[in-house]
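pasting for ref
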Amino acid sequence: MLELFPESARIEGGELALGEVPVSRLAAEHGTPLVVYCAETIRAQARAYRGAAPDALVVYGTKAFANVALLRLLAGEGVGADVSTLGELEFARAAGIDGERIVFHGNNKSIEELHAAAEAGALVVLDAPWEVDAAADAGVRRVLVRLTPGVEAATHRSIATAHDESKFGFAPKAAAAALVRARDRGLDVAGVHVHIGSQLLRTDESVLAVERLLAFLAEMRDRHGWTPQVVDLGGGLGIRHNRDEHPPSVAEFVGPLVRAVREGWREPVQLVLEPGRSLVGRAGVTLYRVGAVKGNGSVVYAAIDGGMSDNPRPQLYGARYEALLANRADEPPDGVYRIAGKHCESGDVLIEAAELPHPRPGDLLAVPATGAYTLALGSTYNGVPRPAVVLVEDGEARLIRRRETVEELLRFET
């Protein structure tokens, strides 16, 4: 199972260690639930993208998990930021990322956000007809037009973004009209963007989207004399949350897309890639403390001190995770257990069937592949504060997001 964990994961003395730090020490110092990120894994993924597309601008899909320390770590590897709100823009700026490495998305940008993007010097992706004039009036300089190519991604419907009924972007005819209008308004239309979805486990649909993008570019060249400086291919590469998932590597995913552009469009263009999950997903592990263990009917439950408030993906997308009893990591499984969260919902089940040694109250449960779209989607449901986050490397653990408190939740009450 360690193949699901970060690259630094080891079992030493019967216990899981991450970044050379035993998980019992992490739990003792920082409490549980606790999200642990491995710096080594994040750096390795950033370098894999650089190796697969050496000349591309890689920007981190900040929505996967907005955190200043992680953004700084990625910036040190030459990675910028893909943001979609004013808040995410401020995270990127706090991390010291300059506007030339920020791509600003969003299907319903506010005037305030467009002004902020203009001030930052970000590359703005136009997503609706009204944004053309609004962006020009706000002082935005360089823009992309988001093309919706009518491609059905092989992923959960909620994270597919390029089908015909998507809320994102423009169908080809509307994209052409928006591009012409943007040029008439004096905007520097640098290029076109396409993104088909998230947690992609194959390349077929992504290659099809590139082919349709290239056809759109050829039509714009032939009819309007316009050619792009930038082609943004989006992101979406998936990760393994369980041993049944087998996504391509970074090189296997990115390589065909880069080749499709280079072979199908002979004029030089700057490529942009927007990975999120594949940069930080595997790097993250969530540690929980086991509480109640009981049998109901044919099911034995092991309850943890977190759940859908720190990871709602099982409820939102039917995500399937696996787990390791981290303080007894060398013991063989003796049964199948249902891992339940602490919230007052029957649906608050993190893992339907986890093969484990018999859990005991006080055990530490480690759930891998929780670095993306988990805490980022979290809430304070049931008045449960969100957990702390640490970054581990070379035997050291650094707190990069402190644990919230109930007192902080109450401060918003009037």
